[in-house]
From TrEMBL:
The chain crosses the membrane at residues 13-28, 35-55, 67-89, 101-124, 130-152, 173-194, 206-226. This is DUF7702 domain-containing protein. It comes from Penicillium freii. The lineage of its organism: Eukaryota, Fungi, Dikarya, Ascomycota, Pezizomycotina. Residues 5-228 form the DUF7702 domain. Pfam families: DUF7702. Keywords: Membrane, Transmembrane, Transmembrane helix.
């Protein structure tokens, strides 16, 4: 079992080391509107690399799990949900003014605070299992809020006005939500049953813990690479739908016509 556990830790180290490369690429390509989403993905990769490296070292030397590594791996779940909020915001950028206020700006602070409070309690639990249980329940509430925000964004009356790339990003968030939910429910159930965010047998840990995270990461990285030109497309499309520029053109055209008529009348009067 120890060898199998070490193999799982090593597999996660390799996966997140590889995932860091496209994550940094997407962070650079997506610009300021994708900043928070991809920053959280990079943080997720970093926490998983540190946590699993410590766990692998502990299992290969002492054969016992490392408490610090368990805490880091527990915290590592929160950036994945935070990243989903960041991607949701990026997918709503072009229609933000038509959406409810809580889907932008300070409204997104609510799930951030809930998720942060939940994972903070879980990280501070140490030997107090009740804090771990309460923290993960609060974290699960944060996930439900993100699911609600995603559904409202998808059903918005102006949803069809999103660019094609924004629709792809929103689709990736919708695909990720059930997978994140499996991971969150597993963490909550494990906390009550095993006093750990990732307890149970090795197959259970792989199916309900590791695999959903891998799938979410692959989903987001694929969407990020596919939509890498989104900032450039926004710049190219910006003048087209801007009604204020069209109004300016009409006004200038009208003024030009008035001046032309005035000059013609002035010329006739001189003759």
């Amino acid at each position: 079992m120890t060898n199998s556990t070490e193999g799982l830790e090593l597999a996660e180290i390799i996966f997140y080391a590889i995932a860091t490369i496209p994550a940094i690429y997407c962070f650079v390509k997506h610009g300021k509107h994708g900043l928070f989403g991809w920053l959280y993905v990079i943080v997720m990769c970093g926490l998983r690399l540190v946590g699993n490296s410590m766990a692998y070292h502990a299992m290969s030397t002492t054969g016992e799990p490392n408490v610090t590594a368990s805490i880091i791996n527990g915290i590592g779940l929160s950036p994945l949900l935070m990243a989903s909020l960041g991607f949701l915001s990026e997918s709503n950028h072009s229609i933000q003014r038509t959406l409810p206020a809580f889907l932008g700006g300070f409204g997104l602070l609510i799930p951030h605070l809930v998720i942060g409070a939940g994972i903070g309690l879980a990280a501070a639990s140490s030997k107090h299992s009740i804090l771990l249980e309460v923290g993960l329940v609060i974290f699960a509430i944060g996930w439900l809020i993100v699911v609600a925000f995603t559904f409202i964004s998808w059903k918005a009356n102006s949803a069809s006005l999103r660019s094609d790339d924004e629709k792809k990003i929103l689709l990736s968030v919708m695909i990720a939500m059930p997978l994140v939910g499996v991971r969150v429910i597993y963490a909550v159930a494990s906390a009550f049953a095993h006093h750990s965010a990732s307890g149970g047998s090795l197959p259970v840990r792989i199916i309900f813990g590791t695999l959903p995270e891998f799938l979410v990461m692959v989903n987001y990285l694929t969407a990020g690479v596919v939509t890498r030109n989104l900032p450039r497309n926004r710049m190219e499309q910006r003048p087209e739908p801007a009604h204020e520029y069209q109004m300016v053109r009409l006004v200038l055209h009208f003024l030009g016509g008035v001046l032309s008529c005035t000059e013609q009348k002035a010329a006739r009067s001189e003759h």
